[in-house]
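Escalated from tier 1: guanosine-5'-monophosphate holo job.
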Amino acid sequence: MNNTIAQLTKVIDNSQKVLILSHVRPDGDSAGSSTAFYHILKQWHTPKEATLTFPDVLPAFLQWLPQVQEAKVLSEQSKETLKCWTQEHDLIVCLDTSLMERSGAIAPLLKNHQNKLLVIDHHKDFSPYGRWLFHNAQASSTCELVSQLAFHWHDQQLFTWNSAIATCLYTGLYTDTGGFRFRNTSEQTLWTAAKLVSLGAEPQKIAYHLTQNTPLYRLRFLGTVLKDFLRFLPQYRTAYAMIPRSLQLAFQLQPGDTSEIVDYVLRIQGVNLAITLREEEPNKIRLSFRSIGDFPANELAKKHFNGGGHKNAAGGELNTSLQEAETYLLNVLQQYQNQLQYEPYETTSIA
Ligand code: 5GP
Ligand code: MN
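Tier 2 regenerated the structure:
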């Protein structure tokens, strides 16, 4: 059950050293909410000592976030360091992470420190952990939840806003809603975005960093995948793209460079379900699922692909070869053929 904002406020007030964690393979929401929280704690009326961390290196399109270069990468630390961090901080804040296991290398150590764990998350498939909780599956993003807390804390004069905080929070709103396009874009989301703009977030600058300013090799890679590695299955209203390791090596891809592909696959006319199968290592395939309309991508990911996520955006993993993963996927899709037959939006004529 959720704690009240007053209870969370007291927890922060009573802490001095705060460790900030989020989920593996950071995205705009985990990076934005964590970095915003870091700034909020530094701007707190009694400033906190905060350690900002990410389980893995941030993708290049997020490395411009204000002061994000101060973050430590968990996968680059020794076990001793991680152990020391969990012990020496008196509060651990875990953001945008639906399962404790998704916090990366530090996850096994958290089990013994659940009594100092504050969790802020918006995933539907959330499995409760930690001692204090602020969870809402209706929120577009963890950044929307952190904004809600921050508006309250500011009204209570507990910290001072700056444009860095507004920028980080707007980033997570933007990325988790696909640029305010997905169905999780609510009135509350747009209201929050407007308020963040009034507090110094610059929509054009943030969109530039997130969606333009793309290194040419990434666009050429996208072109190659769409041209040679994409398969459309009209009978399932599904399209999928295969991303072999050899292709990633040939284009010298960096972490996060494949994340946008699935969104392009979903743009195809007649597609309700888009999938990418990325060979992360030999016999380790990461899958991304995106759907339009009612098809629950998270249920598919959970039931057949050891994963989870949101209704329209989910991920999973298979420990097989890429070829085996494709065969398995095609088998699974057969079971969903009927469920995938729908028009996401009826065309209505305006009289
Ligand atoms: P992506 O395709 O961008 O990796 O993930 C889309 C969504 O699914 C994100 O909200 C992410 O948190 C969730 N997700 C991705 N992979 C997994 C996974 O292995 N397990 C669970 N529970 N959720 C995942
Ligand atoms: Mn999120």
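The pocket of manganese (II) ion (ligand 2) is lined by residues 29, 96, 122, 141-142, 176 (CB under 6 Å).
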